[in-house]
Amino acid sequence: MKFDYDFVAIGGGSAGFNAARVAADSGLKTAIVDGAEDLGGLCILKGCMPSKTLLYMAEVLHLAQKAKSFGLKIPSARADMKAIHARKKRIIDEFASYRQAALNSGKFDLIRAHARFTDPHTLALSNGRALRARHFLIGTGSKISLPAVPGLAEIKFWTSDDVLDLDFIPPSVIVLGGGIVACELTQFLNRIGTRVVLIQRSAHILRDHSEAAAKVVQQALVDEGVELFAGTQIQSLRPDARGVAATFLHDGKILTRRAAFLFNALGREPNTAPLNLAAAGVTSRADGQIDINRWQQTSAPHIYAAGDCSGPHEIVHTAILQGELAARHAAKVKALKPVDWSLLLNVVFTDPQLATIGRLERELDEAGTPYLVASYPFNDHGKSILMEANYGYVKVIAEPKRGRILGAEIVGKDAGELIHAFSGPLAMKATVFDLLRAPWYHPTLAEIVTYPLEELAGSISPS
Known about the structure:
Layout: E1 5-10, H1 14-25, E2 30-33, H2 42-46, H3 48-65, H4 81-103, E3 109-111, E4 115-119, E5 122-125, E6 130-138, E7 142-144, H5 160-164, E8 172-176, H6 180-192, E9 195-199, H7 211-223, E10 227-229, E11 232-240, E12 243-250, E13 253-259, E14 261-264, E15 268-270, H8 277-280, E16 303-305, H9 316-330, E17 345-348, E18 353-358, H10 361-367, E19 372-377, H11 382-386, E20 393-398, E21 405-412, H12 415-418, H13 423-427, H14 432-437, H15 450-458
Parallel strand pairs: 1-2, 1-6, 2-3, 6-16, 8-9, 8-14, 9-10
Antiparallel strand pairs: 4-5, 5-6, 7-15, 11-12, 12-13, 17-18, 18-21, 19-20, 20-21
Helix pairs in contact: 1-9, 3-4, 3-6
């Protein structure tokens, strides 16, 4: 059987690019097939990087507006959306240019076309060409989903793409959803001066995180002026003289809220429909994500999948790990290990941030695994108090006999940075005693993690 390539990555985002890079370095004749108008992938173009750029600018604005709390006189601080948009575009263009240069480096072929399977080893490309390969990596990412919400399909709405590309301050926005994207961009909109109503179906926002952590973020949003409704059921969405009206059930009452714009932040779904996966013998789960084993192989063993289209977690660094693993497996690299999900790291970039790592209480409870837990609040810590950063807590989870760290949860100022205090120790199977032997400088935010560590150490008799 004649093949054009040993390894073809379909999609040039985080999973596909890194898979192709590793495959080429492993000696496989490699190509990336990507027909997107702009190269770079979701993270760079319409995800992580533009959103975090905007969130940080909004945080600077928020601090300036809180100047009086710090004894400062700043007469006024407001968003200049033309300038914010221009800065975001300049930064993202630089990131995208760097990725585009890497894609065109010559280490592998870059084929600008859309692809669909015609059989397990053949792709039909939109440029009229047919391409055959020994191995494929599906890394086509995700797209905005359109859930069955009454009236949503018939009404004009924004997606995260639209919010990330704003160059004006919307007067008012209704946000549907309470996930990470919904919460981060709700806070951004609110801080630049938009009146925001957030409507969430689940009992609390950020439903994939603990209720305690989610409630801290929820309270912060409400304290900043977001009108937030959780535990709702949408009855209807319809055009209104002011833009859009949302009618929903909340606490046994029918309520209606109106705004100039509607933001659909109800999640994403795998972007696999155009691929004709059935022709390749590739199956998917009920949620649309592609079935994979621990080596990223699909139901067709020579076809791999990684990133948002396969999950189980839609996080950039895990997509990279998955793509690299798939390429090494295809290249028959020896002594491989699958992705270790017990080290899972997750960050929500609201303010306060919410970050977790490792195995958390809900998972341990479901598995019947014994553990000890201790926490400490930010509002009783010197550095966070002087920073007016009083929301949240640090929680550490440890094995009860030897004190090995199992996981941690931080909700508070710079939690996304602080959680990395546990990354190395968790990977090295360190104990609370190991971490307490390390120096922790005073006064720093980071030293707050020593308080739950000390409490845990007091509950354990080291062998």
